[in-house]
Amino acid sequence: MASLLKINPMKIFFAALILIAVNTAVYSQKNVKITLDCGVTPKGPPPLWLVVFKNKTFVMKNEYIKAVNPNTIESINVTKDTTATAIYGAKGAYGVVSISINNKFAGKEFKRLKPFLEKLE
Predict the structure, then answer these.
(1) 4 falls within a domain
(2) For residue 95, is it left (φ>0), alpha (ψ between -120 and 50) or beta?
(3) Which three-class secondary structure state does DSSP give residue 17?
(4) Residue at 10 is within a domain
(5) What is the tally of structural domains in the chain?
(6) Which pLDDT score is estimated for 10?
(7) 53 CB-near residues (< 8 Å, 6+ apart)
(8) How far is CA 64 from CA 6, 11, 47, 118, in A?
(9) What's the rounded Cα separation, in Å, for the pair 31 and 63?
(10) Which residues of the chain have pLDDT under 50?
């Protein structure tokens, strides 16, 4: 009975981490969820959201950004400060979040999101 009490807590900790990592990897393949939460309510306008389909860029309003299917995203780029203002003018004053859609999904995703998109001027 004394040998059962001599369990190395670090081995248990690492075994639990491995189980969590394996379960997360399996889960994340099927159900991707993107959540941005900084714990602070932003004071001011939201950033400019851009969605890029095969080198064509569109603006999406903040309230519709959750409509983007995370499985179709190729990359996300954030531009802030004076760089965003220099590139996008006054619209980029509060930062720019650019979401590039994978070319493989661009056609279907564009058709699905078309009601929420505006041309970038």
Answers:
(1) no
(2) left
(3) helix
(4) no
(5) 1
(6) 56
(7) 101, 106, 109, 110
(8) 55, 45, 13, 12
(9) 22
(10) 1-3, 22-29
